[in-house]
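Quick one: co-fold with zinc ion.
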Amino acid sequence: MELPTADIDYPRSFGEFQTWFQSDADCLDYLEWLRWPTGFVCPACGQAGGWRLGDGRYMCTHCDNRTSVTAGTIFDRTRTPLTVWFAACWNFASGKDGISALSLKRSLQIGSYQTAWAMLHRLRSALVRPDRERLRGRVEVDETYIGGIEPGLVGGRAQGKKVLTCIAVELLQPSGFGRCRMAPIADASSDSLQAFVLANVEPGATVVTDGWPPYRGLEQKGYIHERRSQRARGRPGRALAGRTSNCVPGKALAARDPPRSGGRCALAQLSQRIRVPLQPPTFAQPRAVVLPDLGTGCCS
Ligand SMILES: [Zn+2]
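Sure, here it is.
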C-alpha cells in the first residue's frame, strides 16, 4: 500500500484544511480513504468486500462482521465530533511548541479540560512507535518530580500531586540531544530505576547518572556506567525520593533540590522544552460509544 504523501494527501494550509473538512461526513470519508484506499477490507477476516450500512459502518460480505472506520483508531468510542478531532490534530501538528490541554480547550471551545486532556493524550500516544528501538550510545538518565503549581496553595502542596518520573536522553557528539524516553516510576529504588533503564536503553550503551546508589549495578546488566558522584553531594532531596511518590514536600524539596544550572545537564534543559499536563483527569464514568450498536457481531 502506498503511504499518503505530504502536500498532496494532507492539507497544506489552514484554509485548505477548513475547505476539506467542513463536516463529520467529510472527515469519515477522508479516514475511509486513508484506511481502505482500495475499498473496504474486513479487519476480522481480512477479506475485501462489504457494503455500507445506514449508520455509516460497514458489513463484511464474508463474515457479516460490522465495523466502523474509526474502530481501533484514536477516534474510536468518542462523543467528540470528528471535525473537532481533526481541528485538534491540526493544532497539535502545527503548533511549534506543542499545545496544552487548556489552550486546546479554549481554542476549540471544548466543553471540559478533561476532554481536551484526553484528546491530547490519545494524539500523543499515536506518536509512539510500538516496536521502537531502545536508546543507544551515550545516554543520561535521571529522575525528577513533575507537577504543576496549584493556585491557592501557599507554602506547601497536597500529597499525590506530583509524579516521580525517570528520564533518559541520548547525548550527541559534540553536542545536542537525540531521542528521549520518559516514564513515571513508583519510587526511586534500584528495582524501579534499573527496570526503566533496561526497558529504554540498549545494553552496551554508556549510561550517565548521578551518584544515587540505586543506579549501582548497571554494569552487571551490560551497561557502561558513568557516575557523576560529585553531583549527589549536598542533595538531601534524594532521601525524599526514596520514599513513596505520594510524599512530596513541595517548596522544601524545590529549595533543597534545585534544577541544575548551565548547559552541562541535558535533563535540566529538557524540562523547559517538554510540556507536561498538570495532572491526569478523572472520569466519573465510562464514555459512551459514538455509534449505536445495531446488534451482535459488531467489532467496533
Ligand atoms: Zn469479514
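If it helps, Residues 33 and 107 are 28 Å apart (CA to CA).
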